Amino acid sequence: MDLNPGIAPKGIDMDIVVPDLRPASPARRAGPDTGTPHLLRRGQPHARQEAAPDHADGLSASFAASYAGIIAFMAVATEGSFSRAGERLGIGRSAVSRNVQKLEAQLSTRLFLRTTRSTRLTREGERFFENCHQGVAQIVEAMNDMLALRQGPPSGLLRISAATGFGRKVVAPLLTRFSAAYPEISLDLLLDDRPLDFAAEKIDVAFRNGRIEDSSIIARQLIPMQMAVCAAPAYAARHGLPLTLDDLARHQCIHTRVGGARVLEWEFKVDGHLRKLLPAARLTFNDPDLVLAAVLDGLGLAQMAGYQVCEPIARGALVTALGRHAPDDRGHYLCYLSRQHLPSRIRVFVDFMTEAIRAQNLHCLGDFGMDYSKAGPGG
Questions:
Q1: Could you give the domains of the chain?
Q2: pLDDT tens across 222-277, in order?
Q3: What SS3 class is residue 69?
Q4: Which of 226, 216, 245, 243 is CA-nearest to residue 335?
Q5: Which of 6, 83, 156, 254 supports an S-S bond with 302, CB 3.0-4.6 Å?
Q6: Cα torsion at 63, 68, 74, 76 (round to 10°)?
Q7: Region labeled Disordered — which residues (predicted)?
Q8: Considering only CA atoms, which of 229, 320, 308, 241 is closest in space to residue 267?
Q9: Which residues of 11-23 are buried (b: 16+ CB within 10 A; e: fewer)?
Q10: Which helix (H) or strand (E) holds 98?
């Protein structure tokens, strides 16, 4: 089979596949048996001996073969010459030749017959081309698909996790606007207060309360996370408000349960140090909205997040206590796994939600400093 531009095999476009066929740097050495590069790490007197590939295993044998060599082979076959193959791949003719020779050595098969006048596929080369070209086309298609996720119009499934209260009150109401702006993105929202495993639960983006300790997670603070002890004016009129932390023991407190079992402790700052308390509770709910409803109904005191109570405080439906002991801001965060190679559906969601949530002014820094606890019963 003679190869030239007029009769080159058709049916494959490898334009996006441009492997690195440059000579290995001094730090990269060829393995003694397979020619597969491995990295010698600084500080290791002897590189760990890699196990020889098991050629009875198809996956192992495929790994041993050079992908760059296969692409070089396909380029020569489609372009009709080593020179034109090099031009297409953006490398020199000699680099194409070296990679094809390496592939032939790995396969123990001659793929081309070369003379000064022509380059021909051997029968084995023709068979290898026919077997490879569909697979390479699928690889090219897969790479194009991945590039579309990163660079193309935002589309696909976006799986979102959010803490129950924040997700219901802040995140969910914004999803209608986001869906209207990006109709090709499908949304799956999970409200859950348990510790999150991004990989196991296939989460793209998560909204979490408090600082994130996992260094592998990118955490963008959206708004401050302020905590305030609140009560309805009717409760304050009947029972007064606590003047000190010890006074909490004499009040009817309402607790929030998260993650199925854990009851949230109340946090305060005393003389510059964090202090946690768990006062005796009259009521406990596993839903922040139920806690807020009970407080608004005058059933007791609760420590709640600023995004929940800033609006009721502004309209006079709630008053605050112990503001001088308010804990430091821990933040509400939008979390994802990596800044690198971020799919466009995640990138636009992160930007949209960051801007939309910050624009709502869901914190009450000025109001939390107002302390109504001097009011006693009936005052």
A1: 2-37+53-151 (1.10.10.10), 163-223+331-358 (3.40.190.10), 227-328+363-368 (3.40.190.290)
A2: 988 889 999 999 999 999 999 999 999 999 999 999 877 789 999 999 998 999 99
A3: helix
A4: 216
A5: 254
A6: -140
A7: 22-55
A8: 229
A9: ebebeebebebee
A10: helix 93-107
